[in-house]
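Title: Comparing notes on inverse folding

I've been comparing how different people in this forum approach sequence design from structure. To keep things fair, I'm posting one structure and asking everyone to reply with a full sequence. Here's the target:
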């Protein structure tokens, strides 16, 4: 199925010259003069080689037929990341290359969307938001307003993020899984 290059987003799978590539990032560039282009950074699924391609926004690419389904994350071990299909309880294992930057955000029982081709996981799509506990941060300073600068904090998943000064150790916060940025205090 042919699709416009400008419509591709992260996680999309394209077929180029009989090989499957997963889109790692897609950026539409509109120069002041000339034709707008789409810059795609992709990873070849078969061997993990990363490539960068540039297309005019009017050009089309062949989108691969993949199966997108919800899976539940079970655990991580030496083989990879294990997921279960909640409909039929089939389990699949995704490699570290497929999961990539999403690994720290995976939590037991989290529902993710896995793209599979011939039963092999090729891409993962996380929920937009995830909740983690702050395990280390600087103490709050008296008379410091909420509108002041953010302070660094270490989360229970091992990532660092910037949080408002009123957030203390032990507070559960919601972060954006795209970049790990603070969104709000958890409501639970």
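Reply #1:
Here's my take.
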């Amino acid at each position: 199925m042919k699709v416009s290059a400008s419509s591709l987003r992260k996680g999309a799978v394209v077929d180029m010259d009989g090989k499957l590539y997963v889109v790692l990032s897609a950026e539409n560039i509109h120069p002041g003069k000339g034709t707008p282009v789409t810059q795609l950074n992709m990873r070849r699924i078969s061997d993990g080689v990363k490539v960068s391609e540039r297309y005019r926004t009017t050009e089309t690419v062949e989108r691969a037929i993949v199966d997108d389904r919800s899976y539940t994350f079970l655990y991580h071990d030496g083989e990879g990341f294990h997921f279960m299909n909640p409909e039929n309880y089939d389990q699949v294992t995704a490699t570290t290359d497929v999961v990539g930057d999403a690994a720290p955000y995976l939590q037991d029982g989290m529902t993710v969307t896995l793209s599979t081709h011939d039963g092999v996981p090729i891409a993962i799509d996380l929920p937009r938001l995830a909740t983690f506990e702050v395990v280390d941060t600087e103490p709050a300073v008296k008379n410091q307003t909420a509108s002041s600068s953010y302070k660094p904090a270490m989360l229970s998943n091992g990532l660092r993020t910037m949080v408002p000064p009123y957030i203390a150790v032990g507070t559960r916060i919601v972060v954006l899984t795209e970049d790990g940025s603070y969104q709000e205090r958890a409501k639970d």
